[in-house]
C-alpha cells in the first residue's frame, strides 16, 4: 500500500470508524466505498504504522506466570494468585475466591465450609443477584476457645445469607478433652448427619493453616497435651492443618492425641470431595500449602504472590523429601 499523507488519513478514518465508532468491517467498507477485504488490510496497516496503538490494561490483579507454575509444577487443577500491594492482599485474595465460587455454583450443590481469616475474607466478598438452592454444611466444630478466629458457624451462616441458601451447623466444639467425648458426639445423629453431608459435598472451601504460627498453632496449645504427647506431635514434623487436622510435609495425617480429640471431617474424607478449594495468604503458609498439595488435599489454590513464591521455592528445593 502507498504511504502518502492521503493514505495515512484514509487509514486513520477507517480505524476511527472501526475501533471508536464500533462499525463492522463491512459497514466501514460501505462508508469508504471499498471492499471488506481492503478494510481488513487497512486496519492491519494502521496498526503496523502506528496509526492505531493498542494499550492493554490488565485489571485482573492476577499473576498468571505464578499461576501457571503452580499448576504445571505441582499438579493443581487451578491456581489463583493475587498480585496486589501487601496492604490489599486480604481483600484481593478474598475477591478472587469469591469470583471463582460464583462462576461455579449452581442449584442442587452442597458446599462444605471450614474456617479461617482468609476464608472469611472470601465469604465477605461473595455477592449474588439471585438465591441458590444449595446446602452449606459446616466441616469442623466451633472454635469456642480461639476468640480471634472466625468460627465455622459464622462463615456458614454468612455465606448462606449471601447466597440465599440453607445451611446446617455442626453443633459441637472443635476440640474435646478426651477421644471418648468425640466418639460419644459422633454417635449423635445431629452430628453424624452433618458430617455425612460433608462427605457428599460437591465443593469444599477450606482455609490452610500453618503448623508453627497463628490460630492453628494456638489450637494445639489449647489441647492441653502432656509433655510426652506434645513431643510426639512435634516429632511427627507437622507442616500444616486443614479443618484442625494436622498433616506432614507429604500431606499424610498426623495421628495421635492431637487428632483423636478433634471433631470434624477427616483428611481422608476431605480428599474424596470432588473439588477442594484451599485459600491462604503469606509466605508463612508455604509449608502447610505444599503439604496439602502433595497430599492431594486441595485441588484449587487461591493465594497471594508471597505464598505462591514461597511454595514454589520449597518445592523446587525439595524440602522435606518433595
What does this protein structure show overall?
- The protein has two domains: 5-48, Orthogonal Bundle (Arc Repressor Mutant, subunit A); 64-316, Rossmann fold (3-Layer(aba) Sandwich), CATH 3.40.50.
- It starts with a helix and ends in a 6-residue tail after the last helix.
- It has 322 residues and is an alpha/beta fold.
- It is 48% helix and 12% strand.
- The mean pLDDT is 89.
- Strand 9, helix 14 and strand 10 (300-304) form a beta-alpha-beta unit.
- Helix 4 (64-74) runs parallel beside helix 15.
Describe the structure concisely for a colleague.
By secondary structure, the chain is of the alpha/beta class.
The total count of helices amounts to 15
Order of helices and strands: HHHHEHEHEHEHHEEHHEEHHEHEH
Q: Determine Rg (CA atoms, Å).
A: 26 Å
Please give the CATH class of the largest domain. Alpha Beta
How many beta-strand elements? Answer: 10
SS strand fraction: 5-15%
> Which structural category do the helix and sheet elements fall into?
alpha/beta
* CATH topology tier name of the largest domain: Rossmann fold
Roughly what is the average pLDDT, rounded to an integer? 89
Specify the CATH architecture of the largest domain.
3-Layer(aba) Sandwich
Strand arrangement, major sheet: 1-10-9-5-2-3-4
Count of separate structural domains = 2
> What is the terminal separation in angstroms?
59 Å
Helicity range:
40-55%
Amino acid at each position: 500500500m502507498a504511504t502518502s499523507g492521503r493514505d495515512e488519513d484514509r487509514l486513520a478514518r477507517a480505524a476511527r470508524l472501526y475501533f471508536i465508532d464500533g462499525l463492522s468491517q463491512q459497514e466501514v467498507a460501505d462508508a469508504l466505498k471499498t471492499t471488506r477485504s481492503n478494510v481488513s488490510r487497512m486496519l492491519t496497516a494502521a496498526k503496523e504504522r502506528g496509526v492505531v496503538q493498542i494499550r492493554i490494561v490488565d485489571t485482573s490483579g492476577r499473576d498468571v506466570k505464578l499461576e501457571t507454575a503452580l499448576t504445571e509444577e505441582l499438579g493443581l487443577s487451578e491456581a489463583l494468585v493475587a498480585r496486589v500491594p501487601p496492604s490489599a492482599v486480604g481483600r484481593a485474595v478474598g475477591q478472587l475466591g469469591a469470583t471463582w465460587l460464583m462462576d461455579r455454583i449452581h442449584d442442587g450443590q452442597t458446599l462444605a465450609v471450614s474456617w479461617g481469616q482468609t476464608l472469611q475474607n472470601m465469604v465477605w466478598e461473595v455477592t449474588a443477584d439471585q438465591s441458590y438452592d444449595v446446602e452449606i454444611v459446616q466441616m469442623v466444630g466451633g472454635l469456642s476457645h480461639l476468640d480471634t478466629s472466625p468460627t465455622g458457624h459464622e462463615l456458614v451462616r454468612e455465606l448462606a445469607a449471601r447466597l440465599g441458601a440453607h445451611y446446617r451447623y455442626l453443633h459441637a466444639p472443635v476440640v474435646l478433652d478426651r477421644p471418648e467425648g468425640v466418639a460419644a458426639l459422633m454417635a449423635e445423629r445431629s452430628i453424624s448427619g452433618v458430617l455425612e453431608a460433608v462427605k457428599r459435598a460437591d465443593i469444599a472451601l477450606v482455609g490452610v493453616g500453618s503448623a508453627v504460627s497463628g490460630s492453628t498453632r494456638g489450637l494445639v496449645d489449647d489441647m492441653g497435651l502432656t509433655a510426652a504427647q506434645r513431643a510426639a506431635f512435634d516429632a511427627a514434623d507437622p507442616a500444616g492443618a486443614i479443618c484442625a487436622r494436622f498433616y506432614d510435609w507429604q500431606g499424610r495425617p498426623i495421628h495421635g492425641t492431637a487428632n483423636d480429640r478433634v471433631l470434624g471431617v477427616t483428611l481422608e474424607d476431605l480428599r474424596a470431595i470432588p473439588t477442594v478449594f484451599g485459600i491462604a495468604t503469606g509466605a508463612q503458609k508455604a509449608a502447610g500449602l505444599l503439604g496439602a498439595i502433595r497430599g492431594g488435599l486441595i485441588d484449587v489454590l487461591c493465594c497471594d504472590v508471597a505464598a505462591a513464591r514461597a511454595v514454589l521455592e520449597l518445592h523446587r528445593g525439595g524440602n522435606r523429601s518433595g
